[in-house]
Design goal:
mainly alpha
Length: 251
Amino acid sequence: LCSYALCLVTILDDVDAGHRWGKIAISLLDNFGPKRLAPKLKILCYHMLFFWIEPLQSTSAALLRYHHEALMVGDNEYSSLGSQFYCARNIIIGSSLPMIDKECSTFAMQMARCNQIPTLRTLLTNHQSVLRLLGSNKNPFDVLGDLINNEDELLQYSLSTGRSNFVEVIYFNRLFVAFFFKRYKEAAQYSSERFKSGQPKHMYFIFYEGLTANYFSRFSSGDELIKWLQIGETALASFRAWVKHSTWNWE
């Protein structure tokens, strides 16, 4: 049912039905299914489905709660995913950067001990963006030892091995940081590089790409102006559709 709900949202753009079927899936599992699977399902639903309608802040708190529940049933994989999703969402909703820094460090050590390396790599790219926003030179990748020394190495490894999920996360995080430091040309570069990865754009990427495009449309002309206007209008059209489901998140 959770997979069906996700298809309703991502393929058919039926957010309301996807949200409803996600809630039904959780209710059925809570009442009739094995309890050890409940945290896994809830982490997936709160990460991929419920944020379209429910406030981002409440879905962040839920991800942390089900991270702990996954730990209690011995599910290290989804406990790690829950904490990574939680940290990534906290960055987006504007939580305290020093707090996120501390939590990322704690979760990274847990993931390293449980050998959850793929999820740890994603968390470290999120942590790197937090440290950049804080102006810190600390290298979060030190926890990996000699596996990957820094984010540039992770990017090259991901590009050479076709791991587009890591590429997508790195490019978005770099665009996010560049935008906040008003390095708009750099943000536009990562927007262009992100397009080459082949991954569908998520809503946060569309938002910051749209803002960057609106900035450049003020100083462009000809074909360049048309390009930026099209990107900006695509972002606006997306948010006009999403705001129908949650004015709190998307207005």
